[in-house]
């Protein structure tokens, strides 16, 4: 089954962790992708910081363009990756080893992809 | 039934009551096996479970008046299979599936092996499903309760229960939650969720508000049955044995816990009403668990229950032993409710002031829990602070939804 895994962080909590720890954890994310390369599909991307986000929203007669992310939530999406694994347990097992999960405020959402 | 003839009404009721128990026994023995077998055949838990649930509704209607047929499992399987095929033919989205079902096993009995129930149970209790839905789905797919029975037993509106079950089943299908017993490092944590659901099932039986109305399904019975199934299927899992022992200890005290519909506190319970046979069974199960040398919270809860079961009256409880076990339990479970129960033991060993300090420290977490107020009232009363104790008992009274508990607290306030 194919799943999108969405990596989210909470910028204010990121700021609370020590810079060395954050840097060291980020460095290990490269190894993580290498370690699980067999389940990674070609779809995936790391996103520029949330400060670069632009949102186009329903606005009655015409869509409205505004600065900022789509959601007011404290968590922001930092990237996504499509993986191909047998079932949800396999996806959870891989996601649990995501190095940034050492940092408070980091969460990873797993969503299955619709198959037509 | 002739409503004006009291004797006929009485015998009718008595007959229905016995039959409810029999129906519960027969149906829960078959339900999960048929759901598992049909899921394998149809490739869809949602469809399989729905078809079995419908078959159970039909069975209850027919069997209640005509009696249970000689082969209830075969009857239910047949009816469920019929329902499934009917639905596949009716609904467009299933057309393709129907064509792919090469060989509907009409002749071969679809009873399934007993052990297929456990993988299904682990799927129903997957952490990706909310706790409320884990319980509702387990009650329906594993124990074979109808949605109406679950609603009555868990005090939730029927539509809410139905929605929880549908959502959970669809999530299992759509997100690829595997129906299997997890292996390796995941096993212990996943088993703990299963055991928690069984334990909640047992406690729900005592939480029914307005609690005097006889329900047609006793959740405590279902929970004990399920604890036995899990313990039997996973004989090397010490915690599964631990939970079974715990529920057996509690079940053994049932006869003394409520007398004429009134709750009796553990200290005041008439020990001669305890079921010695169940206590002996519980002790044996707990000893077997201990031999596996893998301690855990359910075994410790059971060991604490065992301490109480050893007493001849409330006065000879070995509170130091109870407190020691609670201290060990804290290493596995630091939940506020466990700490509150520990405080009761602490009061007996170190006095009410030490216990009150501990109880007060839990105020933020438990202020909405009636038993926190009841325990606090008890400590205050032991310290001679009667007015404060009375105020706490009134708080507890206000927060409890259970009639029997309410009367117990009222009696205390009146004193």
TrEMBL record, chain A:
Residues 39-110 form the YCII-related domain. It holds the Pfam family YCII. InterPro entries: Dimeric_a/b-barrel (IPR011008), YCII (IPR005545). Belongs to the YciI family. This is YCII-related domain-containing protein.
Automatic annotation (TrEMBL), chain B:
Pfam families: DUF6596, Sigma70_r2, Sigma70_r4_2. Residues 190-290 form the DUF6596 domain. Residues 124-172 form the RNA polymerase sigma factor 70 region 4 type domain. Keywords: Sigma factor, Transcription, Transcription regulation. GO terms for molecular function: DNA binding; sigma factor activity. One of its GO terms (biological process) is DNA-templated transcription initiation. Residues 28-93 form the RNA polymerase sigma-70 region domain. Belongs to the sigma-70 factor family. ECF subfamily. This is RNA polymerase sigma factor. The lineage of its organism: Bacteria, Bacillati, Actinomycetota, Actinomycetes, Micrococcales.
């Amino acid at each position: 089954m194919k799943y999108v895994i969405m990596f989210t962080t909470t910028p204010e909590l990121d700021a609370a962790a020590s810079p060395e720890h954050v840097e060291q954890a980020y460095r290990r994310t490269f190894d993580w992708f290498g370690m699980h390369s067999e389940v990674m599909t070609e779809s995936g991307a790391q996103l520029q910081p949330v400060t670069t986000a632009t949102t186009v929203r329903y606005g009655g007669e015409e869509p409205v363009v505004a600065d900022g992310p789509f959601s007011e939530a404290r968590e922001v999406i930092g990237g996504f990756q499509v993986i191909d694994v047998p079932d949800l347990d396999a996806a959870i097992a891989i996601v649990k080893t995501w190095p940034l999960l050492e940092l408070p405020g980091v969460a990873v959402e797993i969503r299955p992809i619709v198959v037509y | 039934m002739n409503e004006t003839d009291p004797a006929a009404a009485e015998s009718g009721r008595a007959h229905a009551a016995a039959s409810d128990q029999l129906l519960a026994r027969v149906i829960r023995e078959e339900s999960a096996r048929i759901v598992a077998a049909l899921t394998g055949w149809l490739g869809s838990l949602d469809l399989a479970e729905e078809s079995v649930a419908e078959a159970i509704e039909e069975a209850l209607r027919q069997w209640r008046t005509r009696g249970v047929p000689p082969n209830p499992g075969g009857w239910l399987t047949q009816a469920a299979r019929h329902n499934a095929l009917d639905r596949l033919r009716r609904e467009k989205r299933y057309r393709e599936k129907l064509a792919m079902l090469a060989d509907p096993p009409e002749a071969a009995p679809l009873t399934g092996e007993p052990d297929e129930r456990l993988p299904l149970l682990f799927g129903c209790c997957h952490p990706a499903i909310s706790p409320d839905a884990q319980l509702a789905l387990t009650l329906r797919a594993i124990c074979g309760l109808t949605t109406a029975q679950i609603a009555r037993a868990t005090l939730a509106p029927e539509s809410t229960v139905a929605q929880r079950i549908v959502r959970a089943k669809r999530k299992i299908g759509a997100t690829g939650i595997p129906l299997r017993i997890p292996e390796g490092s995941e096993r212990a944590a996943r088993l703990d969720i299963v055991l928690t659901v069984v334990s909640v099932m047992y406690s729900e039986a005592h939480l029914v508000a307005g609690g005097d109305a006889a329900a047609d399904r006793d959740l405590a019975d279902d929970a004990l049955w399920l604890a036995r199934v899990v313990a039997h299927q996973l004989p090397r899992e010490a915690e599964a044995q631990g939970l079974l022992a715990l529920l057996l200890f509690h079940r053994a005290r049932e006869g003394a816990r409520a007398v004429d519909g009134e709750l009796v506190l553990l200290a005041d319970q008439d020990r001669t009403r305890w079921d010695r046979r169940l206590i002996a069974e519980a002790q044996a199960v707990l000893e077997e668990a201990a031999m596996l040398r893998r301690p855990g919270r359910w075994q410790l809860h059971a060991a604490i229950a065992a301490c109480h079961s050893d007493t001849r009256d409330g006065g000879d409880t070995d509170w130091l032993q109870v407190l020691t076990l609670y201290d060990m339990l804290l290493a596995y479970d630091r939940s506020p409710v466990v700490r509150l129960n520990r405080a009761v033991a602490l009061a007996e060993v170190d006095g009410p002031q030490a216990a009150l300090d501990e109880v007060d420290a839990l105020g933020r977490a438990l202020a909405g829990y009636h038993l926190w107020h009841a325990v606090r009232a008890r400590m205050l009363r032991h310290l001679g602070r009667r007015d404060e104790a009375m105020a706490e008992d009134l708080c507890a009274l206000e927060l409890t939804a259970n009639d029997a508990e309410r009367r117990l607290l009222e009696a205390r306030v009146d004193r």
